[in-house]
Amino acid sequence: MSTIVVVKKDKRIVIGADTMQSQGSITIRNVYQPEGDKIFKFQQSYIGVTGSSAFTLVLRSLFKKHKELINLSSAEEIFETLLKIHPILKEKYFIETEESDDEGQEFESNQIFALIANKTGAYEIQSYREVHNIDRYWAIGSGKRFALGAMHAIYGREKNPRVIAEKGLKAACEFDESSGLPLLIRSVSLEGQ
Questions:
Q1: Which residues contact 58 (CB under 8 A, 6 or more apart)?
Q2: CB atoms inside a 10 Å sphere around CB 76
Q3: If 0-12 CB within 10 Å is exposed, 13-18 middle and 19+ buried, where does residue 107 land?
Q4: Residue 73 sits in which domain range?
Q5: N or C: fewer beta carbons within 10 Å in the chain?
Q6: CB of 176 within 8 A of CB of 34?
Q7: What is the per-residue pLDDT for 36?
Q8: CATH number of the domain bearing residue 128
Q9: For residues 98, 104, 107 and 111, what is the CA-based torsion angle, rounded to 10 degrees?
């Protein structure tokens, strides 16, 4: 798993992630697999993805091959993008959409959990194509609770969004067995700010 955070403050958005990978019970620090970044850039957006490292590869490939379908400029546009790419995820990338342990499931899952940071804002994507605007800070992944707690504790006192994101990620890396240092941090300025 992973921990990815996003912080919006002082006309900037910071997105960050831990860099540890895992294969079953084996943990792999980024010195062994440095190409395993959990955040990638597409046009003017940074996208942080949790779950299998294959999801980052799938999205990078899909975004490269189908640029014309991708619009990450608002929650509504991201939702429309997710609708457009869902058939491609199933047919070309073999995403497993069944979730047998979730009876009463109302929608087919795309299995994607991600955070997006760009000049228009910060957004969370959940697996049923839910898209949420993030106004302050948020975290996803296995270290989410630790990161949220740490960021909540300092958000009102700290002006620098990078410091807030780092504190959240460091707390996750300290207490979540599936998150590890070093950190990967990216920053963007908000449009019109």
A1: 89, 93, 95
A2: 10
A3: exposed
A4: 3-97+107-189
A5: C
A6: no
A7: 64
A8: 3.60.20.10
A9: -40
The token pair that represents 87 in the structure block: 């058939």
Pairing of strands 3-9, 45-49: unpaired
When divided into structural domains, the chain yields a total of 1
User: Does pLDDT of 27 surpass 70?
Assistant: yes
Tell whether 102 is covered by a domain: no
Assigned token pair, 123: 């957004």
pLDDT surpasses 70 at 103: no
| Tokens representing residue 117 in the block | 């940071």
In a domain, 157, yes or no: yes
The residues pairing with 124 across neighbouring beta strands, listed in sequence order, are: 115, 132
Question: Among the residues of the chain, which ranges form H helices?
Answer: 53-65, 75-91, 144-155, 161-175
> Is 11 inside any structural domain?
yes
pLDDT over 90 (residue 89): yes
Is 154 inside a domain boundary? Answer: yes
Residue type, 7: V
Using left for φ > 0, alpha for ψ between -120 and 50, and beta otherwise, residue 93 falls in alpha
What whole-number percentage of the chain has pLDDT above 90?
Answer: 77
User: Is 114 in contact with 140 (CB distance < 8 Å)?
Assistant: yes
What angle (nearest 5°) sits at the alpha carbon of residue 34, between those of residues 44 and 68?
Answer: 30
The shares of helix, strand and coil residues in the chain, as percent rounded to the nearest 5, are 30, 30, 40
